[in-house]
Amino acid sequence: MPALRLTGRGLWITALIVPPLAFVATFVAYPIISALAYAFFDWQGLLRGEFVGFQNFAEVLFQEPFASYTRNAFAHNIVVFFALMVVQNGLGFLLAYALWRELPGAAFHRVAVFLPVVLSTVIVGFLWKLFFHPLFGVVNKSLDAIGLDWLSQPWLGQSSTALGALIFVNAWHWVGFPTLIFLAGMQRILPEVLDAARMETESEWVRISGIVWPLVAPSATVVFILLFIGSFNWFELPYIMAGLDGSPFGSTDVLGLYFYRTAFGNQSAGVQDFGRGSALAVLTFLFIAVVAAFWTIRLRKREIQI
What we know:
The protein has a two-stranded antiparallel ribbon. The termini are far apart. By secondary structure, it is mainly α. It folds into two domains: 1-29; 64-305, MetI-like fold (Orthogonal Bundle), CATH 1.10.3720. It has helices spanning 2-38, 55-62, 66-100, 106-114, 121-131, 138-145, 159-174, 176-186, 191-200, 204-215, 217-232, 236-242, 255-264, 274-305; strands at residues 41-44, 47-51.
């Protein structure tokens, strides 16, 4: 009987583990290994040519015009990361603190702040693309209505504002996620700790910076790492709102867009090149993996010290 129970339990565990492992192997591990293999060959459309070693990597990093495209896209990813770190995560922390302190309307805002997160990125992209329309978009119409018509402009049609508009939309879409994570971390803080802090100081800023922020360090680590990975995997929103070329004039181009049009081709890039596209994908993956692992270890050590 014990042997039968053990066998049944083993089968149950196997049934739970095998499907997700098969899914990961098929849709995650296999594409990564395939991209690594493709990056070392020359490609003519869908036809694999001869082995070229690290030539594709050298081309996307050092040979023009590919190197300029790579630097431009990588720079935009960096801008996106730091901007979202300040706007999206900073606002998420402040919203979480306001919800945690049960300010007026907290019950409603708990739902409202997370509602955009559950919306599809496709819906959000097309919706805000209409909002930013220079003629009948709600953004310019609202500015006109309140007497700020001098601020009305083609937000997605000029290089100086296009990337900022995409960053704003992404922050609006995802600010509920860091809010939820920070709020969960704050709710773990013992009331006795806050009572002791109130006895020491009446300054809200001192309590936030000296008590609350250090105690939500594990939440900050999760939010930081996920934002870093998401910023350098940015694809859907710029693709929907700015197009595959990163319009206008490459001002919204990011590594995800550059990889896609290199590997699969488009009107401006011409024929597809799996070799250079795979090399770019592998370099992006290695950069994200190494930096994310480094900062995860470093931030975890900081949590222990705190």
